[in-house]
Amino acid sequence: MSALSGRTILVIIGGGIAAYKALELIRELKKRGAAVNAILTRAGAQFVTPLSVSALAGSPVHSELFDLTHEAEMGHIEFSRAADLLVVVPATADLMAKMAAGIADDLATTTLLATDKPVMIAPAMNVRMWLHAATQANLATLKARGIAVIGPDEGDMACGEFGPGRLAEPQVIADAVEAALQPTGQPLKGKKVVITAGPTHEPIDPVRYIANRSSGRQGYALAEAARDLGARTILVSGPVSLAVPPGIEVLPVETAEEMLEATQAELPCDIAVFAAAVADWRPADRHEHKLKKDGKATPPEIKFSANPDILRTVGHLKEGRPPLVVGFAAETDKVIDNARTKLAAKGADVIVANDVSASTGIMGGNHNRVQLVTAGGVEDWPELDKREVAMRLMRHFAQMLAEKGSS
Ligand SMILES: Cc1cc2nc3c(=O)[nH]c(=O)nc-3n(C[C@H](O)[C@H](O)[C@H](O)COP(=O)(O)O)c2cc1C
Q1: Is the beta carbon of 17 within 6 A of some atom in ligand 1?
Q2: Looking at residue 354, what is its pLDDT?
Q3: Ligand 1 centroid from CA 178, angstroms
Q4: What is the extent of the structural domain holding 264?
Q5: Whose alpha carbon is nearest atom 6 of ligand 1?
């Protein structure tokens, strides 16, 4: 059941070009079971109509502070009392400034000042407005007061510029609202999660190795999500240039063989997630000394041997197999077909498939678009920040684990 079921969210829509996306957010919140009240600022009403907002919210939308009927039915205090959470979408530079300064000169800002409920803002504005020292100072003030800030994203903007300032995707905002209202913030408390991440380095000689472009970001983000959901988290990490996240036990390894050994030493565990990009092959001979040119015309030949398949090994364990085994399938073609084959062959419960063709920018990038392949079918997720993907995945795995436990 969604954490939004039976909750009331007050959506405050500011006067920005991204206001239309607030409509999508309202739909998403309603779809997840929330009741939605809405306040539209006067400027907001220049971008979306009160009719669209109230039709989607299923309740009248309000703009004016000095409105007798509305004050008698649902005034600014009552608005905040009725809500479990307030979310400002888009949060304009103006609304952020007023919130930071405690200005209350319309219904939106008065309600925001009068509330003692959790407040989230999803800012959206021109990149220079966002980067302006005034906005950044207001942002710091709001954050320091415990206001959650979602986004903004970086990308092409409606004003024709590029940079940070784009409204976070409505799905992501809805996820953040849902996460903030989770009754049990730590569904993995008392569980042990082992995650592999990063590339492996397979040595040719003491100075050269075969590697791949994996940055380890997705695996590290998964480990942070598992930690935040309460799990004791072990991260078996190939060589990456990422900081060691606090509260996670990191076991650094180089080769696939070392990764397998370190992983097996951590079993049993409740969930094993194999997000590392493990080299399929390694140079058969590891030369003790650096290979030299020595004036030879022909370069040395490198023969390969197969590396151990960590996912398959753990997925097929007769004893000590984790209740939930998750593999990743980074593919450049026939993504779903390959993921389905992998699911069966490797004995995994879930394969998280993604297209890592160079054009997607996923390998080494900050975003990921995944599809979840299980025996039950395929789930298509939108493109999201790798951290967001990680939190959603970990919550999903926690749910699958709970369902397995109760079946
Ligand atoms: C076409 C147009 C687009 C605008 N887009 C934004 C925007 O994306 N973000 C923003 O902070 N302000 C934007 N503004 C400025 C705000 O509408 C203005 O600051 C207004 O006072 C905000 O009112 P509110 O914060 O009460 O909604 C825009 C103005 C115009 C005319």
Answers
A1: yes
A2: 86
A3: 27
A4: 192-406
A5: 16
Distance between CA atoms of 335 and 102, rounded to whole angstroms? 51
- Same domain as 176, residue 196: no
Domain CATH code at residue 399: 3.40.50.10300
Query: Catalytic site residue 159?
Result: yes
Task: Name the residue among 303, 315, 305 with its Cα closest to residue 342.
Answer: 315
Cα diameter, the chain: 93
Helical ranges in 121-241 per DSSP H: 127-131, 133-144, 170-180, 217-228
- Please tell me which residue in 159, 207, 306, 358 is annotated as part of the active site: 159
Give the mean model confidence (pLDDT) for residues 190-211: 97
Question: Which ligand 1 atom sits nearest the alpha carbon of residue 44?
Answer: 27
Which of 21-30, 292-301, 331-340 has the weakest average pLDDT?
Answer: 292-301
Residue 131 C-alpha to ligand 1 middle, in angstroms? 16
Residue 363: pLDDT band with limits 50, 70, 90: low
Atom of ligand 1 nearest to the CA of 158: 8
**Is residue 103 situated within a structural domain?**
yes
Amino acid identity for residue 106 in this structure: D
Reported as a single tens digit per residue, the pLDDT across 139-185 is: 999 988 889 999 898 877 777 777 789 999 999 999 899 888 876 56
Tell me: do 353 and 296 sit in the same domain: yes
- The domain boundary, picked from 148, 180, 212, lies at 180
Residue 320 in this model has a pLDDT that exceeds 80: yes
123 lines ligand 1 (CB under 6 A): no
Integer angstrom CA distances of residue 268 from 182, 271, 364, 376: 28, 9, 31, 26
Q: Is any ligand 1 atom within 6 A of the Cβ of residue 93?
A: yes
Whether residues 196 and 154 share a domain: the answer is no
